[in-house]
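Researcher: I've got a protein sequence and the SMILES for magnesium ion. Could you write out the 3D structure of the bound complex as structure tokens? I'd like something to compare against our soaking experiments later this week.
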Amino acid sequence: MKLENIRNFSIIAHIDHGKSTLADRMLEITHTVEERKMRDQVLDSMELERERGITIKMQPVRMLWHPQSEILNLKSSAEGGSAFGGKNEIADSSFYNLPPTRPQRLSVAMAGAATYNLNLIDTPGHIDFSYEVSRALKAVEGCILLVDATQGAQAQTLTTLNMARELGLTIIPVVSKIDSPLARISEVKNEIAALLNVPSDQILEVSGKTGEGVEKLLEEVIKRVPPPVSEFPEKNIFRSLIFDFQYSNHRGVIVYVRVMSGEVRKNTPLIFKVADKTFTALEVGVFSPSEVPTEFLSAGEIGYIVTGIKEPGIASVGDTVSFAKDNLEPLHGYMSPAPVVWASIYSESQDDFTNFKQALGRLKLSDSSFTFEEESSGTLGRGFRCGFLGMLHLEIITERLRREFNLNLIVTIPSITYEILHRNGKREIIYSPSLFPNDNTVEKVFEPWAKVKIITPSQYLGPIMQKLFDHEAIVGEAETFGDNRASVSVDMPLRELMRNFFDELKSISSGYASISYEMGELKEADVVRLDILVADEPVQAFSKVVSRKRVEEEAEKSVEKLYNILPRQMFTTKIQGVALGRIISSRTITAMKKNVTAHMYGGDITRKMKLREKQKKGKKKMKEIGKVNIPQDVFLKMMKSE
Ligand SMILES: Nc1nc2c(ncn2[C@@H]2O[C@H](COP(=O)(O)OP(=O)(O)O)[C@@H](O)[C@H]2O)c(=O)[nH]1
Ligand SMILES: [Mg+2]
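Model: Sure. Here is the predicted complex with magnesium ion in place.
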């Protein structure tokens, strides 16, 4: 396909603003998906995505389209110019006060009844998956910034907007869900106009539900988004950037690439430049939206290459795939995202350890943002310390491990990392609360802070400020924009952000306030470790690091929660919260009544049982902590913050 006829764009928006539904209509208009195969949010193909109604992974799709519209088929070259020359101010990115970093080739004649190759990448909207968005944006020249007419601009709207701006992409602002009786079209347009600094009549309107405005939007994409340019237009020097990959049991790693120059065909010897590993392309193709083989992939296009590579750890996003004999520098890749929360995961039975390890390797081949490292714990055996981009990411990964690999897992209470400065000057990073030092060797503790942006209808500002105060936030500037919106910038300990702040914010604002954040600096923290003991044994998975001034409240909460969810045992069981060497909170679960011998379990027998348990360690099921049976779902419930 000629570069002039290619457009690469992405849809970005806050979660639920209608990206995937808009993509559905585009797939229909361009006849990319057969009618009988069409279903709502067809690009959300993962079972979990469909069940929860959210997009987790970006999804590229190639659409071939022959626009019917007069505007695009104007015989403009016959007029001695182009429809997109200086006359058409919409096509000029400087109009949007955006840096014109991408070369624009709008003067190329686009007249006639051309067929366009439109490469769309649908993206997730939740903050935990913004790494997906950042990668998608590196593969395109423009994006549709979608804002829900019933919701207005939200925090993630700003975050994705800033990402797109930094990359110098053409931004097409669009109001979605205009069919809804709750739509506040002109109000929301004013908000976007203020955010983008554009006149509100330049903002398009669509309904993904009825399809209104979608064809027009596609035409605007062709008009406003510049075609891609090739790094080496004259020669066939194949170079492509990996922005994602998948794993297939028989075909190995399948890399998703944006071709920067040249063209590639099946059976060509290629190389992963950074990993320095050669392979032969088993197949090349495009997404339609499922993989469809093509004869070749050429400059400007988005598609896939089947590598046949089955070893983990070779393919990585941001790497360059080029001809094996290429001796140029690799393309500019991506920064790996730093995990935000950590949790340790153990298979319930140690017999599953090998399977579990394999499963993690496989999962990483479809989610490059997930990290893991082997560790071992006294009571839980061998497991993995895993890093996640947020709580939803953690939830999705553990759920996928259970479903896709059929594993029974114990997940510890998630935690952020702390940096300890010991009295002897040694610095240490602590990933797991159960390893947080409990003695007086600690000089100082440092913790990460987050830079948080909150967007809310102005009337909720008061209660939000109170919440911010409760969560130790330092409130910075607050601005109002549009008719009734406020944005507040705050710094907050990441620990406090993870302490259910998202849910609390949602509930005090009736769901209208939204949040986005990035990691900030380390600051000194006043925190202590809280252990939960069951029948006098600390359960490592339940340990937490909490603010010193909230230790009592937290101890009571955890003990109470466990008391309510732990099944009764054969004997009376004490649950205690212990911090700083003292018992802070305690509850006792009485023994099961039907067991007549329950009252006979004295200290002696218990001790013997403990001994026996220790001997059996390694063989026994991991859920047996000490002498108490803690079912898997108790770990899951304890892991969730509320
Ligand atoms: N009324 C109306 N609802 C819509 C429209 N587009 C999407 N929705 C609904 O909004 C919700 C989120 O849509 P989805 O496309 O998954 O949003 P995404 O998270 O941005 O991909 C779903 O319940 C859709 O049915 C629209 O144009 N009009
Ligand atoms: Mg979606």
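Model: The longest helix spans residues 391-405. Residues 74-111, 595-603, 615-624 have pLDDT under 50 and may be disordered.
Researcher: Great, I'll pass this along to the crystallography team.
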